[in-house]
Amino acid sequence: METAAIVDQLLRALQPKRILEVGGDAMAAELRQRGKEASSVQSLAEVDGAYDLILCHGPVDELPPGQLAGALDRLSGASDTVLFGMGPGSQPVVYWLREFEKRGFAPVYPFDASFFTPLAILLRRGEAQDAGSLELFAELTRLRGEVVRLREAHESLLLEALHSGQDRLHEGLQSVSRALGLPADTALGKSATALENSSATELAARLERLERQPAGAVDAILIRRLENRLSGAEKRLDEVHRDLTGMLNSRIWRTLMSGGGFVLRILGR
Known about the structure:
This protein is an alpha/beta fold. The chain has helices at about 5-15, 25-35, 65-80, 95-100, 130-180, 185-195, 200-205, 205-210, 215-250, 250-265, and strands spanning about 20, 35-40, 55, 80-85, 105, 120-125.
């Protein structure tokens, strides 16, 4: 997602006034252009000050364990709201949920932060959650990230295959036009020109025909396989979403969380 679109969602959903970006400056720069008070640092170790929202992405676990704990302490002490993005090689989602839980933060559900990075969570200072709900939320976040990556890969592969088919068809039309000695303003010549200007949406209708062409068969098979993986991930995501919603909306859970989590603290959770 483009930086401007990410910032649009941030401002619409969270309405922060003072923002710190950790791990880059692109979003902070976009926010400053919109008149917001935004600054940036490159590392967790540099976090200082007080903010309405901290945007943390990039190599979040680049520090050794001894220094990481202190950096997370500074991060959690600088804001009550953290949008935390993890890379593919990061620690598991549940690891970060537990680290933030130690510092008084809980994930905001059902907020979907995958627009920020494919693997991201919005955390706010609040009462600790049940271990079971954290595990489910971690799986929900992982699946959201997988769905985002599969959708991006599917779109990229689909467009590549369709444009490849477009190029092959265009070359064929041009070859036939030249062989027949037809000028560019003939119907066949115009078809080649129109094909060049086709949009991705118009090209999508040609996928079924592309499957029947030997040159496009491999592309089509890859696309269908990716679509099957995407469908499976989306189905699993819906299942985990229902499980977590059911847990958080259950009468037992509401009882445990009543009174500011008093019962959970008695139980030593």
